[in-house]
Amino acid sequence: MPDQKLPFSGVKVLDLTHARAGPTAVRLLSDWGADTIKIEQPAATSTDKGSILGARNGFDLQNLHRNKKSLTINLKSGEGKKIFFDLVKRSDVIVENFRSQTKNRLGVDYQSCADINPRIIYGSLSGFGQDGPYDNRPGVDQILQGMGGLMSVTGLPGQGPVRVGIPICDLTSGMFLGFGLAAALFERESSGKGQWVQTSLLQAIIAMMDFQAARFLKDGEVPKQAGNDHPTGVPTGVFPTADGHINIAAAGEVLFRRFCDAVGLSDLYKDTRFDTYEGRSSNRVELNAEIAKVTATQSSEYWVEMMQDVGVPCGPIYDMGEVFNDPQVKHLKMAWPMANATGEFPVVRTPLAMSRTNVGNAVRLPTPELGEHTEQILKELGYDDVVITDLKKRNVI
Predict the structure, then answer these.
(1) Taking the complete model, does pTM exceed 0.90, yes or no?
(2) Rounded CA gap, 396 and 265, in Å?
């Protein structure tokens, strides 16, 4: 742990999130110093028979909920709600990803919290938004991959819709909400007022379709599947080697000529089929075939090293084991050590670095056990042992 304070040190966060998108937003604040309390249902009153994230000590939940404390309270009980609002009074940020109407039914919506603490910043993440015709639909990653247009451009031409291999709507909506919460905290420094910050999986994936979405909005062109080929850069894509495949990005006149000269295909840029961008685009299949004949003669490592020498973007195609064995990945320390009661293991490091207020070489707080900090937090609020014991007996906490 570095000696200096982290950027969000002193910021108190109440985490009402579940699944993946909401926790991704909270993780951005928690990793960078926020004092985060994850509010969960007491085991005795929970109706959750299994998490989409797997076991409590499984890789997914451990990776998502590090740098937090855990408090169990039953928000459906009056006493549990009182504890929650006691915490709201002293908090800076609340984050939730219920369906849009659930928080109103529970009485923990933005206005209810702002009435108690006008400085509160309340972050909401849903599938489709907080209002509108779809506001209370359940929204999960793959549904939104389809509705946001992503599956229509993923996969090989004519293959039919293909899901992206990561929960990209969850992750990006969480990142957008995290940015919004940071922006609201910054704005509060001048206004003194909190506000409601909202995004959704649908908004996030449309924003992530940036290139294809702008293409449609400006030119009216509906992008199609392009497989491993870049939708407009030619030649850019996946090419076979003697022992696997590599990515090569040799689009543009300068890079194309440089690439052709390096691999002994100088005749290509003199060929009337390929001597202009338009020609290369129209005859892409033929161009890729000519390049593949050459790349298939040598190993991936050979071509990656050669392309670095001549200044053409090129890289290997890794599985996850190969990713974490790469020397640059090791240098960046993307496997971040975390120690809990079961031992030490790595999680995925935050991808940001700062020169002065940087995170440490290990996770500050391991992912907590269910309710691990309940007594500690309640005592900080002024509850004594007798009251805490009684609340436990009645499944309020």
Answers:
(1) yes
(2) 73
End-to-end alpha carbon distance in the chain: 32
CATH superfamily of 236-320: formyl-coa transferase, domain 3 (3.30.1540.10)
Residue 305 DSSP SS3: helix
Return the percentage of the chain with pLDDT > 90, whole number: 94
Q: Which residues pair with 247 in a beta bridge?
A: 238, 315
Helix then strand count (H, E) for the chain reads 18, 11
For 238, other C-beta atoms within 10 Å of its C-beta total 15
The residue type at 249: A
Q: Where are the domains of the chain?
A: 12-208+333-393, 236-320
Q: What share of the chain is helix, strand, coil (3-state, %, to 5)?
A: 40, 15, 45
Q: Is the omega angle on the peptide bond into residue 231 within 30 degrees of 0, that is, cis? A: no
Measuring CA to CA, which residue among 73, 86, 75, 81 is closest to residue 12?
86
Q: What is the mean pLDDT of the chain?
A: 96
Whole-angstrom distance, CA of residue 206 vs CA of residue 212: 9
Give the model's pLDDT for residue 6: 97
Is position 170 annotated as part of the catalytic site? yes
CA distances to 129, 144, 145, 146, 201 from 135, rounded to whole Å, are 5, 13, 17, 17, 12
Q: What is the pLDDT of residues 337-361, one digit of tens each?
A: 999 999 999 999 999 999 999 999 9
Please answer whether residues 128 and 139 qualify as being in contact, where contact means their C-beta atoms are separated by less than 8 angstroms. Answer: yes
Per-residue DSSP letters for 63-118? HHS-S-EEEE--TTSHHHHHHHHHHHHT-SEEEE-S-TTHHHHHT-SHHHHHHH-T
Exposed e or buried b per residue across 111-146, where buried means at least 16 C-beta atoms within 10 angstroms of its C-beta: ebbbeebeebbbbbbbbbbbeeeeebeebbbebbbe
pLDDT score for 48: 59
Catalytically annotated residue among 15, 92, 170, 229? 170
Centre a 10 Å sphere on the Cβ of residue 103 and count the other Cβ atoms it contains: 23
Rounded to whole angstroms, how far apart are CA atoms 40 and 158? 46
Alpha carbon distance 164, 155 (integer Å): 9
CATH class in words for 12-208+333-393: alpha beta
**What are the φ and ψ backbone dihedral angles of 376, each rounded to 5 degrees?**
-60, -45
